Amino acid sequence: MSRRIVVAGSLNMDLVLEAGRIPVPGETLACSELVTVPGGKGANQACAAARLGGAARMAGQVGNDVFGAELLRSLQLSGTEISSVRTIAGATGTAVILVLPNGENSIMISAGANGSFALDASGLEALQLRAGDCLLAQLEIPLDTTFAAMRHARERGAVTILDPAPARPLPAELLRLTDWLTPNQTEAAILLGEPGLQIDSYDGAATAARELRKLGPAGVIVKLGALGCVIANEAGVRAHSAWPVTALDTTAAGDVFNAAFAVALMEGQDEDRAARFACAAAAISVTRRGAQPSMPTRQEVDDLLQTATRETICL
Ligand code: RIB
Fold first, then answer.
1. What total of structural domains would you count in the chain?
2. pTM of the entire structure?
3. How far, rounded to the nearest angstrom, does the alpha carbon of residue 176 sit from its chain's CA centroid?
4. Cα separations in angstroms, 135 against 117, 147, 148, 181, 259
5. Quick check: is 255 catalytic?
6. What is the pLDDT of residues 66-94, one digit of tens each?
7. pLDDT digits over 112-153, tens only?
8. Atom number of ligand 1 nearest to Cα 14
9. Which of 25, 45, 63, 208 lies at a CB distance of 3.0 to 4.6 Å from 92, suitable for a disulfide?
10. Nearest-angstrom CA–CA distance, 101 and 103
11. CB of 95 closer than 6 angstroms to any ligand 1 atom
12. Residue 107 within a domain
């Protein structure tokens, strides 16, 4: 029986503009044509997991508007099971995304239906989590709901992966329920209570990962974008280099990373192979525009993995 990947999180319609730079306060800046793209950290992770061959199930909430219907369609097309996604009266979550010429982005979100998503006992039961399955969580739904899902997953013996995005200081109890905490550089700095901290090397990320482990999670992966990632658990601290690609749009690269890591773990790969698989999947996603349209297929990731062996560096 295949091990399931359950995502409890957000669904957003992304309203994307490309601009030469971020406007300063008081400025009006001409941008590209507006495009709407299915997104939301939760839905992105479910969609990416399904495209990579995982048995993905999404739990979340959309509004009864055109965006909500489109988001459900996108997830269904990816092969994600959506019976735990509720539709309520009101607006679907949206994200306004500005993509810069170097592929980096700025994102502003409006929670919409994500903001009232809750999981009671029957909602948790409906997730159908079993021992050995995996829960993927992020921070775009109420923290109490994330807490309930993480606690339930731990009780069921599932692997818990928490993407601390958007970053905020987190209660120790939640971190102790976490098997893998997966911040990027800025999120790691915020979780450590040092928002200005620059984490731009393997050594810097290794120090951050060791410190983060002291806060409760069993394992930590610091996602370093073009550098790859640093992984820390009871076996030690290692770095995995990234695939060199030209980034067009980094939106959702972190979501693809988490989904791919979960898919590989659920297949029984060890965490280092899973981290390399995740780096490869994320590398492909940044060469394409948008969140869900950028997600690679299994074949594409397997092909990239064949092209070169990446280094594993013990730190
Ligand atoms: O991680 C990228 C996602 O963040 C976007 O799709 C946007 O919806 C925001 O949730």
1. 1
2. 0.97
3. 19
4. 17, 12, 12, 12, 10
5. yes
6. 999 999 999 999 999 999 999 999 999 99
7. 999 999 999 999 999 999 999 999 999 999 999 999 999 999
8. 8
9. 63
10. 5
11. yes
12. no
